[in-house]
Amino acid sequence: MVAVEIATPYLHRSHLDRELALLPAGSRIIEGPGVDAQLDRCRAEQPDLVVCGMGLANPLEAEG
Q1: pLDDT reading at 1 higher than 80
Q2: How many CA atoms, within 13 angstroms, populate the side-chain half-sphere of residue 7?
Q3: Residues paired with residue 29 on neighbouring β-strands, in sequence order
């Protein structure tokens, strides 16, 4: 499994330096994602699995 995008409302980089270093090279880290933009990126990637909150899950479920 490859994480295509890691999104969070707020990212305190100095607190998470060690964890961020463990992510694979090229991981897309998005801070403060807007739902519409995130949905557009998700649709473009067409992932097999999406782990997300309800704000993103409900529109994706409605699309099938």
Answers
A1: no
A2: 17
A3: 6
- Degrees (nearest 5) of the Cα angle 3, 16, 46? 15
The angle formed by the CA atoms of residues 5, 19 and 26, to the nearest 5 degrees, is 40
What's the rounded Cα separation, in Å, for the pair 47 and 49? Answer: 5
Spatial separation of the C-alpha atoms in residues 55 and 36, rounded to whole Å: 10
Q: What is the pTM of this model?
A: 0.75
pLDDT at 32: 83
Contact 29, 6 (CB under 8 A): yes
What is the rounded average pLDDT of the residues 38-51? 92
